[in-house]
Amino acid sequence: MLRQYELVEIIKAYDPDMNEDLVNRAYVYAMKAHGAQTRASGDPYFSHPLEVAGILTEMKLDTASICTALLHDTVEDTGATLEEIEKLFGKEIARLVDGVTKLSKIEFQSAQEKQAENFRKLVLAMSEDIRVLLVKLADRLHNMRTLHHIPKPEKRRRIGLETLEIYAPLAERIGVHKIKEELEDISFEALNPEARESISARLNYLRDEGGDVVVARIIDELVKKLREGGLEAGVYGREKTKYSIWKKMQRKNISFEQLSDIMAFRILVPSVAECYHALGVIHGLYPTVPGRFKDYISLPKPNGYRSLHTTVIGPENHRIEVQIRTPEMHEEAELGVAAHWSYKQTTEAKNTEGRQYRWLRELMDIVEHAQRPEEFLENTKLELYQDQVFCFTPNGDLINLPRGATPVDFAYSLHSDLGDKTVGAKVNGRIVPLNTKLGNGDQVEITTSKSQTPSPNWERFVVTGKAKARIRRFIRLQQREQYMSLGKAMLQKVLKQEGYDYNERQFNHDIYRQFKTENIEDLLTGIGSGHIASREVFYALHPEQRPKEAPPSLQNFVAPAVDKKTHAKGKASMPIKGLIPGMALHFARCCHPLPGDRIVGIVTTGKGVTIHTIDCDTLESFADTPERWLDVSWEDGEDSPESHVGRLLITIANTPGALGTLSTVIGKNQGNITNLKIMNRSLDFWDMMIDVYVRDSRHLSDIIAALRATPEITSVNRARSR
Fold first, then answer.
1. What is the pLDDT of residues 453-465, one digit of tens each?
2. Which 8-state DSSP code applies to residue 301?
3. pTM of the complete model
4. What domains can be seen in the chain, in order of their start residue?
5. 3-state secondary structure of 192
6. What letter does residue 486 receive in the DSSP assignment?
7. What Cα–Cα distance (Å) separates residue 473 from each residue in 261, 369, 486?
8. Comparing C-alpha atoms, which of 9, 56, 4, 47 is closest to residue 26?
9. Phi, psi for residue 32 in degrees, rounded to 5
């Protein structure tokens, strides 16, 4: 544990003008406030804020950030108050502590609404001052480093999943690559220890087989060739992280043995000009791998990352990935926004630094338009996770979007009103459908019309959270207007039948309160949507007309909320939105849709609705009958009450015990084999089709990842058709 004078000396080393008195007082205050509190490891609780402060010193952050780290748990876990913090340490530190305190109770698998609401607070706090996020990331990093002290595996998994889904993407978005990689690796160990151990074992095997010697020889040859080209450069070899290796195996559907670039080599040169000089030397000596060159110097990533990336068939015929950058670029790559955070900046300049991130402004827009916290969480995850493509406006302005984005996403990224009015698009001067996926370097021109409104069909193909939030908001408003019109017509009909005229002046707060509504619009919407019976509203307006002993009927009670999930197939509720209650429901056997997949409903005569995945080949046969298509989705935030069948196509080595290993891996990942069919036999390998009961698509993906990390299994794919 750092001593008080040691912490001060570390800060002084990079900030000679630090406020030593303020840091000393924060150190003593936090130590006294936490007193005899201990952590799960048995260490004094004060060791945690001290370690968080130590992590921030590695980023060379300012005095206010260090003090915030020391004090960040005092308001929540001790008797300290924000008023007291402000009085003792000033408004700036009190504001930062308040920002971090609001975020400290994000619990991923507790009530999803609570988690989403806390994440909303995180976005709001870091939009005001990005240092809030830096302190929170350091706080999470130290908690992850001590995760092994938590005895319950379920809790470790919950924290690991939360870290992987929220904090690691946030770290990547602000460019703190060093923290992002460590968060991912510890989360990987908590979530999938067997896959991580398998990759570790194979990496150790490569080292034992002389892998380190090969790396040293490659470095020596690169240094020699660069020197011959007139460059004095530092060359470093770095083993890719276990999590990044596993992700690549998943993304490219390949086994560990098929990976050819487990090592990355970094070349550091003094200037930008020498970066391109070094690139010329490397490309002049070794064959390049097509499609693997990226220039992030002339076109930096949204988080400010700059570097040249290329892959070549290098020394000793090894395929190697090479990154070329300056020392300044390297510091930015490791520390991101923190590398720009000079302790000499003013608070105003720092706040400006925090606001310059476009993605953060996109998240703020989602905060404004998402109706439910769960919807906000879903849309922000879309913003955080996806890789980027870079497109241009007709004026040459650069717009970065998630991979898979469409012209509609592009329009919404420019301005919400532009997205709402979009009727067409040109990409590189050619008219294209609105669902066209954009590529790097595309120039996009949007055509608009004043009479245009968002189409519900757009939600099927847009990928940005902002676009989804705006489209869903419009659909809600449009649906509400339709329900209001229908509700008014239904109430007018009942009143006319009884000899009364419709008059909105009859309604008062007592009637609204009786039906748990706020105003006439809410009441009419409830009637139109079927939540409120129109005759019951009539009786509320004219209680003297209510029969003394009314026989049971559908018109004599306030109708319960329509359960969109219950269907004629059985009593169990199915988590599908967008279907009429009582409609028969079937899951297509051609694609085996799972919760988490994007789905579509097809009306089938005599069978009700059949649910397919959005990419199912069978849908082509219904292309000429769009009236049979239904826009459906899985219910947000709910698990299906029963298991679903996921179908896998597997190639397995014909060796003793291989089939037992396969079934063991599936069982350890909570899967249940329901059917197995051998499709093809050869002397060395068997091809088979296996049906597995799983909870959702993520569960199936976890099983696939675990199988791909198993040496006896050559390939694993999810089956998309029979």
1. 888 788 888 988 8
2. -
3. 0.53
4. 4-193 (1.10.3210.10), 194-325 (3.30.460.10), 358-466 (3.10.20.30), 473-545 (no CATH), 576-634 (no CATH), 644-718 (3.30.70.260)
5. coil
6. H
7. 45, 7, 20
8. 4
9. -70, -40
Tens-place pLDDT, residues 44-91: 999 999 999 999 998 888 899 999 999 998 988 888 888 999 999 999
Q: What single letter denotes the amino acid at residue 357?
A: Y
Tokens of 512: 């609204």
Q: Which residues pair with 235 in a beta bridge?
A: 267
Question: DSSP secondary structure string, 95-145?
Answer: HHHHHHHTTTT--TTS-HHHHHHHHHHHHHHHHH-THHHHHHHHHHHHHHH
Compute CA 284 distance to the chain's CA centroid, rounded to the nearest angstrom: 40
Task: Kindly list the catalytic residues.
Answer: 76-77
DSSP string, 500-552: ----GGG--HHHHHHTT-SSHHHHHHHHHHTSS-HHHHHHHH-GGGS-TTPPP
Residues 6+ apart with CB under 8 A from 270: 326, 327
For residue 476, the Cα-to-chain-centroid distance in whole angstroms is 24
Rounded CA-CA distance 445/447 in Å is 7
265-288 pLDDT, tens digit per residue, is: 999 999 999 999 999 999 998 888
CA distance readout (Å), 570 to 56, 577, 613? 56, 16, 22
User: Residue with structure tokens 């009670």?
Assistant: 557
- Sorted by sequence, the CB contacts under 8 Å of residue 132 that are 6+ apart come out as 96, 99, 100, 103, 122, 125, 126
Strand arrangement, sheet containing 422-427? 430-432, 422-427, 444-448
